[in-house]
Amino acid sequence: MKRTILWIALGLAVNLPAFAQLQLSQAECRKMALKNNEEMKIAENSYRQAKLDKEIAFAAYLPELEGSLTGIYRKDMDLMGAELQMRGTYLAGLTLTQPIFTGGKIVASNKLAKIGVDCAEESLRKTEMDIIAEADNAYWTYIAVGEKVKQLEAYQKQLDELYHQIAKSVEVQMATQADLLRVDSKRSQILYQLKKAKNGVELCRMSLCSTLGVDIHTTIQATETNIEITSPQQLESSILMRPEYRLLLNQVEAQKQQIKVARADILPTFGISAQYSYYGNLKLAGQAEDGTPFKQEYKDGSPMLMASISVPLFRWGKGLKGIKKAKLNYQNAQLDLQRNERLLNIELQQAIQNIADGYNLVETANIGMSQAAENLRNMQNSYDVSMCTLTDLLDAQAQWQEAYSNQIEAKTQYKIYESEYMRVSGQLKP
């Protein structure tokens, strides 16, 4: 019987799902998020496509070689008493074409393709920064809530010890039942807060798992719980390196090149081509004047050099209207740049202000924590020698809990502000 139970237990253990466990620093969190993010992979593919488009556009500068082969099969034709036989006649040729002038369309198209590569590269950087900022936010939020759980557990332990201490005092009539109930009520409040905090940790863990691209049941242990905050130095206040700004500049330049593309439609084009044609299996059969039958096969090849020029004369104003439309698009791109430049600068100034305010909050929280810890130590000593009331001690413990919570929140929020500042200034890297 015991052996049967053992085998059942082992079978259940084997069938239990084994969830991964990760120990991650902030840098490792960033790398994993970038590696597993679908948007990052799409951005990388778009960058590769843009480079291929550039190579395709460059090919328009080069000559094109085309080959052709035509086979003919038809019934014999009467040709002045003879038969022209085209059963299996073939015509083969090679054509080499080189554009000389296309109104500037090829040059403009190549510049547009280069701009496309630049845009794809900036979009890739933007996606990378967005993912890193999101990962940092999830990482530090997870740490903040986890540290609050630890703080509440420590506070709960203090209250448990105080409860048992007062319970013994009640037994020897050194404390009242009301004191015991007051501590027990505080324990219930902390237990409620602890359960809420643990639920918050679980939600933050699943959010972090989603950001990292791993299974939501993965256990994650953050290694940077001892958060070091350094005073902010001179902060960059320029948006020149931000991907969004560079994309706007590229958009303006792209619309400028579109004007040249539209203008090319009203300009003449010039090109040259070389061709070589060869035909064979063309036969002529008949009878000579003396009645002697004959059959002769014709096959030959010939080269040819051609030059062509095309001049658009009248298209009902289509070309001029296309140019006007392209110029309006160019103006719109410039206006869009001006509007968004202001918004990006405002966003950067807000991020700089958040850094300054966040650091001041950290300093204030550190002072508050130091004062609360000292106050709690004094109250605990005073309570031990009956120099203060239980209410005073509980108030001191509550103040310490709030100060500790504020310190954790201030430090993690400052780290999030740091990442956001680096993102909006275009400096955020893995």
Automatic annotation (TrEMBL):
The keyword Nucleotide-binding does not apply. InterPro entries: OMP_efflux, TolC-like. Keywords: Cell outer membrane, Coiled coil, Membrane, Signal, Transmembrane, Transmembrane beta strand, Transport. Residues 1-20 form the signal peptide. GO terms for molecular function: efflux transmembrane transporter activity; porin activity. Its main location: membrane. It is found in: Cell outer membrane. One of its GO terms (cellular component) is cell outer membrane. Residues 145-172 form a coiled coil. The keyword Transport applies. Pfam families: OEP. PANTHER family: OUTER MEMBRANE PROTEIN TOLC. Belongs to the outer membrane factor (OMF) (TC 1.B.17) family. This is Outer membrane protein TolC.
